[in-house]
Amino acid sequence: MTGKPVILIVDDDPVQLNTVVSILQKNYNCVPVSSGKTALQFLENRLADLILLDYNMPDMTGIDVLTAIQETEHTALIPVIFLTGVDDAEGEVSALRMGASDYIVKPIRPAVLLTRVKAQLELSKSRMNMEYLIAERTEELWHANERLKKREDSTLQLLARITDMRDEDTGGHILRTTGYTEIIVKALREDPNHPEGYELSEEEGQSIVKCAKLHDLGKIAIPDKILLKPAKLTDEEFAVIKMHPVYGERFFSDFIKSDSEDPFLETAREITYSHHEKWNGTGYPLGLSGKNIPLSGRIVAIADVYDALVSERPYKKPFSHEKAAEIIVSDSGRHFDPYLVDIFVAHQEEFIEVSKIKDNIPKYEFAHSMSY
Length: 372
Ligand SMILES: [Fe+2]
Fold this sequence. Notes:
This protein has helices spanning 14-24, 36-45, 62-71, 89-98, 110-167, 173-190, 202-212, 224-227, 235-241, 244-258, 263-274, 295-310, 321-330, 338-346, 348-355, 365-369, and strands spanning 6-10, 29-33, 50-54, 80-84, 102-105. With 372 residues, it is an alpha/beta fold. The protein has two domains: 6-136, Rossmann fold; 168-369, Hypothetical protein af1432 (Orthogonal Bundle), CATH 1.10.3210.10. Strands 2-1-3-4-5 form a five-stranded parallel sheet, with helices on both faces. Helix 2 (36-45) packs parallel to helix 3 (62-71). The longest helix is centred in the middle third of the chain and has 58 residues, at 110-167. Residues 215-216, 244, 275-276 line the site of fe (ii) ion.
């Protein structure tokens, strides 16, 4: 390779071919061919930096060759200059519309050809540099976005863990609730016959799964003496507990005011305020019913209750899966969305698998390990 740009010259007229080659050969590697077919054969194995293409040829016309070049991925960006003996404004326009880079009318004047070829090669070079830069920047942005997503996940995990540490003694509630939510979301998205109103884009589904772990974030605002009370709660105390969806909602509403562009925060807000609503309207805090309860909240309601049923608590032994399933099915259409209960029933084996997940990070361990 000499480093000179390669110019493929396609013309059925040998005199024209020789003329063009004699003008360009000092500065460029010229590859003269006499038909469109031969030009395309050349381009199968080698590339050119620029193509000079005769407009009128007997077998394949210049337009046919240009179309084939543009339809082939590795040649689509090669600049093409048309050469023709016809001073035809209409042909010029149609060639340029087809994607030709330029159009030179014969007889060829050496200075014009040299100038146009040089200009197109420079243009092509700067376009390639630009595309390389764009690709490089796109990759950098992708990596930055991935880092941001990881940081977002860690922050969510941290927030969820803070809530969980205050409330649960059993561990793993966050992981399992996320797991059950994921089963329902996946089944919903994969059911082509789901009823109207259950459409979830991939992004919406991912947001629900990510935010499920934050459903009880509002419990941060509940006093310890009530949240951690080992005995039965009074009606007044239970009324305070029932405020946690409201506190969670306020927390995310404040965020949304400062970052209203993020749909993810809206999903988190929906789940925190609606996961204790019931299908028949007897839930809290708003007493919403049916599809007025956000789909995200209806999904997390099943995930949250199922985990509470099959988990051990200071005040109760874990229920068997069968007993928990019986309770959820009997509450279909009362507490829970009937369609989502159908999904639960169809995916019980997966729920059983997720219920085995235990959090292996010992809680409060740091309190014992600090020896200084
Ligand atoms: Fe809750």
